Amino acid sequence: SLTVTNDLGCSGTSSFLRHAGVYEGKTDYLQIAPNPNKGTFSITVVGTDAQARVEVYNLQGQLLQPDLPTLRLNSLASHTRLEFKNLSKGIYIVHATIGKNQYARRVIVD
Length: 110
Known about the structure:
By secondary structure, the chain is an all-beta fold. The chain contains no helices and nine strands.
């Protein structure tokens, strides 16, 4: 859980969320463009003969689009475009599971 306190002393605590962590090392398996953006961005997932699952979370750990399909990567790249409308400015986490590996990237909406 996370407790945030503002300059006026008001605070709020999130509910408990278990997260495996965010790995943002250099990888070509998960590509996002443009970043930063205005709420519309493309995600490219690269791999061969693997299944890929892409999820987008806000900083409170809420899954924004739970109904995205699992991608089957039969070629060198599989591309999916996510489009959000009325998305608040902020930082979001794009998490991809490609085969047995997990990758994450931060996305900035301004």
